[in-house]
Write a structure and sequence with these properties.
single chain; 108 residues; 4 helices; membrane; transmembrane; transmembrane helix
């Protein structure tokens, strides 16, 4: 039962992560290079976060992966306006909550 709960928890976390990243770039025009990059990067980052979170749930450093994945488009295009401080705080709080839940209840 715990593996299913772990998958469900990670799925909810990744849905929230995807919405947060989508909101970050929703003001860009449709044919933007940045949107093309995000469409490519988001599934890769989500897969990486899922695998790390599922395989290494007790490692606190694993929960830094969402923050790094969130910052990659800003670093790739060297544009600070892609970084929203409120979104970073929300992502850190969600990662901390996920790390706590995994360590306390869902790790084997």
């Amino acid at each position: 039962m715990k593996p299913l709960l772990r998958i469900a928890w990670l799925a909810v976390f990744l849905i929230g992560f995807s919405v947060l990243v989508s909101l970050q770039f929703m003001w860009l025009p449709v044919g933007s290079d940045v949107l093309g990059f995000v469409r490519f990067w988001l599934p890769i980052a989500g897969g990486l976060i899922f695998v790390l979170g599922y395989m290494l749930p007790r490692e606190p450093a694993v929960w830094a992966a969402p923050l790094l994945a969130y910052l990659v488009p800003a670093a790739w295009f060297r544009r600070a306006e892609f970084v929203d401080p409120l979104a970073i705080l929300l992502l850190l709080a969600a990662s901390a909550a996920s790390a706590f839940v995994f360590r306390r209840y869902l790790s084997t």
